[in-house]
Amino acid sequence: MNYLSMIFAFITSFIFTFASTPLVRRFAYKIGAVDVPKDKRRVHKKPTPRIGGLAIIFGFLVAVLCFNDDWSKSMIATLIGAGILAVLGVIDDCKALDAKLKFVVQIIAALIVVFYGDIRISVFSNPNVFSTNPYVILPMWLSVIVTVVWIVFITNAVNFIDGLDGLAAGVSAIMSMSLVFIAISYHEYTIALVGLALMGSCFGFLPFNFNPAKIFMGDTGSTFLGYMLAVLSIQGMFKSYAVISFAVPVIMLGLPLFDAAFAMIRRVLSGKSPMIADRGHLHHRLYDMGFSQKQTVFILYAISGVLGITAILLAEQRFLRAMLLLICVLIFILIATMMGKNSFVHKRTSGKGDDAEDKVSLSAGAKSDDVGDGSEDKS
């Protein structure tokens, strides 16, 4: 019965998200939640609605309300926090909010999960390889801090990668898929069901968001997806006493996590605020090397998929296979980089310039973030 509920949750979220996205698109035009390319930083050529995340949230909620049987405090707290971020995202997509205000609200949503839902990172793998203890138990105060930082950071990390059509939705679907497999292996069936509902919503939204995008998910969608993945990863993995309890979620969420971390480090080292947008994200670098937008998105899909498989293997204690896959990812990135440089040089020397596809909208973010718009990076 658990597995049937999971399957129906996925199908329901997909159908309701797919059906409601055109309605949300029309609604966005009516309330003025439209991204108008009014400056050079916005690359898309025509006004595009940007509250598509409402459809993602709607499809997800319908599936969870219909098929979830676990209404514990942790589940209620998770949905309350998601609701707060959804309201914040809609307001921000309609009228840009101050980054500090958004940051404070995200912390409040995380604290609700921590204190009301009793969801915390209290144990993780011991980084000291010479220690006889395979795991570390955190004191209460440190557990709260680590949990809040994790939730807020992942929330914004997914927001950061929302810079190409279909990128955030597709990567979130892949990460949700990995989460489902790991949750099932840990016998966390409620987490698996919620993860499938999240995955179904992403797939239901993708047909309208893939290049050329008819609608952007905006902060409404990207922060919701990041928040849900962060909270579910804590419930499904961090509470395990396995030696790899910390490594699994870090690798599973590796693409947005490391991209955001390197972006902040890069900005700080260059004397800039870590909240100021730039064109240094991984998807920017791949695109600037000469890959088309679709090629860039598929490359990042592949990287996220391999990282997800690596996390699954680690969760099953298959360390050697996981390490081999990680090596494959590094080789893949190296080859892609070399190919990209060659393609970029060829375009420059041939004088052809950008191809036709490069003229299509590059922004899937709430306000064309990562392709010249700093809206997402403000969080």
What does the model show?
- Helix content is 66%, strand content 3%.
- The protein contains 13 helices and four strands.
- The strands form two sheets. Strands 1-2 form a two-stranded antiparallel sheet. A two-stranded antiparallel sheet has the order 3-4.
- The chain is globular.
- One of its GO terms (molecular function) is phosphotransferase activity, for other substituted phosphate groups.
- It is found in: Cell membrane.
- It is a multi-pass membrane protein.
- Pfam families: Glycos_transf_4.
Give the gist of this structure.
With 379 residues, this protein is mainly alpha-helical. The chain is 66% helix and 3% strand.
What is the count of β-strands?
A: 4
- Beta-sheet strand percentage? under 5%
Overall form = globular
The biggest beta sheet is recorded as: 2 strands, antiparallel
Q: What strand line-up does the widest sheet have?
A: 1-2
Distance between the termini: 41 Å
Q: For the residues shown, what is the average pLDDT?
A: 79
- Structural category is mainly alpha
Radius of gyration: 20 Å
